[in-house]
Amino acid sequence: MPETRTIASSLGGYLRTRRALVSPADVGLPPTGRRRVPGLRREEVAELVGLSTDYYVRLEQGRADRPSAEVLDALARALQLSAAERAHLYDLARPRRGAASRTEAAVRPALRQVVQAIPSTPALIMNDRNDVLAWNPLAAALIADFPQLRPHERNMARRIFLDPDARQVHPDWDEAARSTVGMLRMAAGRRPNDPALVRLIGELSLGSPAFRTLWATHYVHEKTHGPKRFRHPVVGEVALRYETFQAPGTAHQLLVVYTAAPGSPAEEALTFLGMLTRA
């Protein structure tokens, strides 16, 4: 299994990956002919940020201690980072002292009741390790038979990368895989010493070449909202949208609710599945 600090993306690795994605033209620099590597050179990033090249090199080599907020904000602008990518940069560069090393594994009974009380659309609670902690009957009917799975198997990253039927269940597998890796990257930045996260990423790295390839991109993703498709053996493909809500008073527990457009085939499919779950 990889070492913890290898699994949690280092600041240097993240900076190198991100500057390779930004062309000189993207930041208004003149072309300089053929380049050996894609993206910006170290000295170009340093110039954009207002740093010496030596200091920026020390940042990429992990030899600069806790860069200031001003430096990190300037790096985020120069590398054109999104809000999630900027947050990840801060996590890597300025780890919070005393931060919890693991994610809560239990759901408050009242939160579990909230999920169960959602009658007509799939809903679940997951953490940023992708552990599914609570679900309603429609989520179990559509996504996976969570009650029949062992606790460690109730993890969407394992379902995506290690389940041989994953591409059948998830018609949008490529996007689902990329966003799942992005969530794990953000979690690793927040909690590089979380033992369960270390074990999970090690297991996925050993078991899935696709995961290893995506992990090497340093892509980060914060689950918020968007389209999601599932394929069910009885009702076929179901096109939904999801919205994500941070569960109050918990560490990185998310309520995810999937909804169908009114009058759509997906709504009819969910209605039929709901009838089956009550039969």
Short description:
This protein has 279 residues and is α+β, with helices and mostly antiparallel strands. It has 14 helices and five strands. The protein folds into two domains: 8-93, 434 Repressor (Amino-terminal Domain), CATH 1.10.260; 109-278, Beta-Lactamase.
Structure description:
With 279 residues, the chain is of the alpha+beta class. The chain folds into two domains: 8-93, lambda repressor-like DNA-binding domains (434 Repressor (Amino-terminal Domain), Orthogonal Bundle), CATH 1.10.260; 109-278, Beta-Lactamase. It has 14 helices and five strands. Strands 2-1-5-4-3 form a five-stranded antiparallel beta sheet. A hairpin with a 3-residue loop joins strand 3 (225-232) and strand 4 (236-246). The protein starts with a helix and ends with a helix.
Q: Secondary-structure element sequence?
A: HHHHHHHEEHHHHHHEEEH
Order of strands side by side in the largest beta sheet?
A: 2-1-5-4-3
Overall number of structural domains: 2
- Poorly predicted runs are 1-9
Number of strands: 5
Write down the overall geometry.
elongated
Largest sheet: 5 strands, antiparallel
β-strand amount: 5-15%
Counting helices, strands and paired strands, the structural category is alpha+beta
CATH architecture descriptor of the largest domain: 2-Layer Sandwich
The averaged pLDDT comes out at: 90
Helix amount, in percent? 40-55%
Radius of gyration: 21 Å
Provide the CATH top-level class of the largest domain: Alpha Beta
